[in-house]
Amino acid sequence: MGSSNGAIGAKAYFPGPKSENESWVRAEFQAIIDDWFDWRKRYREDDPSALTPAERIAPDFLKEREVLAQELETLKTLMRRETPTYSPRYAGHMVAELTLPALFGHFTALLHNPNNTSKEVSRVGTVIEAEAIAMLARMLGYDPENARGHFTSGGTIANFEGVWRARYRLDHWLALALWIAEYTGERLDVFAAAHMGWDRFKALMDRFEPGQEELRNASTVAGNPADVFRRISKASGEDYLGPVVLVPGNKHFSWRKAANVSGLGEEAFWSVGLDEDGRLDLADLERQVERAARDHRPILAVVSVAGTTETGEIDPLDRVADLLDHWQAERGWRIWHHVDAAYGGFLCSIPGGPHEDVLDEKTISALRAVARADSVTLDPHKLGFVPYACGAFLVRGADRYAVSVFDAPYLERPHLADDLWSATLEGSRSAAGATAVWLTGKTIRFEPDRFGAILAGTVESRLVFQTAIASGVADARFLEPADTNILCFSLGRKGEALSHSNRRTQALYEAIREAGEFFVTTTTLKSPQYASKSPGTWRAMAGRPIPTAWCWYAASS
Question: Tell me: the pLDDT tens digits for 374-388?
Answer without folding.
Answer: 999 999 999 999 999
